[in-house]
């Protein structure tokens, strides 16, 4: 058989395999979102892991990789797998901070998610830095997300007061008051984008 023909056939087979892998990852990502929507967190965890592929999403576009890392981190947090969630959200946040649009909403979500993880780990002071960095995004969040952020701010303010961080606690209380002023909405769990 001709060497060029053999090379062409091999390349075609490799491209077909890559296309199938990409299609499986995309399908897993879509099913992950659906599983999250219905609250099937264990299934969502498996699907979101599959959506990253064998190499942790290294071949994906940065925006897509960040989104998939974020979703998996969000799920890990809801399953109380905090150290795993922390690593995934840190990776997502690192990607978000390298993208040209540094004020994108995904970055705000990652910062707020990291503050929730740090709170769950009892690392309130470290988490406060993420929460403080999330504050400028509050106006971009949905009304339900703002209510959730207000709830997070309230909890952080209380914990920071116990840690003698009164100035930061006061800023968080003021931000809480600004988000809740004149609103009657019930805080919803912070949503994954």
Give structural notes:
The protein has 193 residues and is mostly helical. The chain has two domains: 1-60; 62-193, Tetratricopeptide repeat domain (Serine Threonine Protein Phosphatase 5, Tetratricopeptide repeat, Alpha Horseshoe). Helices cover 75% and strands 0% of the residues. The chain has eight helices and no strands. The protein has helices at residues 3-38, 41-52, 62-78, 82-98, 105-120, 124-134, 143-162, 166-180. Helix 2 (41-52) runs antiparallel to helix 3, helix 3 packs antiparallel against helix 4 (82-98) and helix 6 (124-134) runs antiparallel to helix 7. The longest helix has 36 residues, at 3-38. The protein is elongated, with a radius of gyration of 20 Å. Residues 10-18 have low confidence and may be disordered.
CATH architecture of the largest domain: Alpha Horseshoe
Proportion of beta-strand residues: under 5%
CATH topology of the largest domain: Serine Threonine Protein Phosphatase 5, Tetratricopeptide repeat
Give the terminus-to-terminus CA distance.
51 Å
Average pLDDT number: 85
Proportion in helices: over 70%
Major β-sheet profile: none
What is the CATH first-level class name of the largest domain? Mainly Alpha
Name the CATH superfamily assignment of the largest domain: Tetratricopeptide repeat domain
Q: How many distinct folded domains?
A: 2
What's the tally of helices?
8
- Total number of strands: 0
The string of secondary-structure elements, in order, is HHHHHHHH
The structure class reads mainly alpha
